[in-house]
């Protein structure tokens, strides 16, 4: 067709623009991540983020509506990376129960290395769940989808309880794990040290027959 070259030119231009936009956005996300890791707080300013990224305020507002929008992107990026790690760990096993154990243990390892950034994101997580629940649910979707795959396989294999709907079971396990994570990283665990063995024993008891 006569317009093929035009379509290719437009497509190439749009791809290049998208790549540049993602590269600039990533620099802002990385800068925010560095500030979180250093301070353990989320009260840094847009100007601090801009200075750390080496870009301009104008560029910032071309990519994000404001600081909360950037923090949402940081949260989404963190959950995406974590979900990739969870899947990489669970892919080591075939049996659904073993997959679930690896999932829980990987979750526990994330608590041990949470650090300042983990504490700050836990505080933001609470804010996000309250003020922007739709975006919060969307950010958690990859993590919950993986758990749903494991639970569905476990139920199909007759290894997990069937008296609770699988969607509800996934929600309960997710809420329990995230609550444990928040208590841990915020230092609200009353001095109790939660081992990965403890966490797995609790989850296994909750979901098994």
3D structure, described in words:
- By secondary structure, the protein is an all-alpha fold.
- The chain folds into two domains: 64 residues, Arc Repressor Mutant, subunit A (Orthogonal Bundle); 143 residues, Tetracycline Repressor, domain 2, CATH 1.10.357.
- α1 packs across α2 and α4 crosses α5.
Name the descriptors:
mainly alpha; single chain; Arc Repressor Mutant, subunit A; 209 residues; 0% strand; 79% helix; Tetracycline Repressor, domain 2; globular; 2 domains; 9 helices
Which CATH architecture of the largest domain? Orthogonal Bundle
User: What structural class should be given to the helix and strand makeup?
Assistant: mainly alpha
Query: What fraction of residues sit in β-strands?
Result: under 5%
Q: Domains counted in the coordinates: how many?
A: 2
**Number of helix segments?**
9
Oligomeric state of shown chains:
single chain
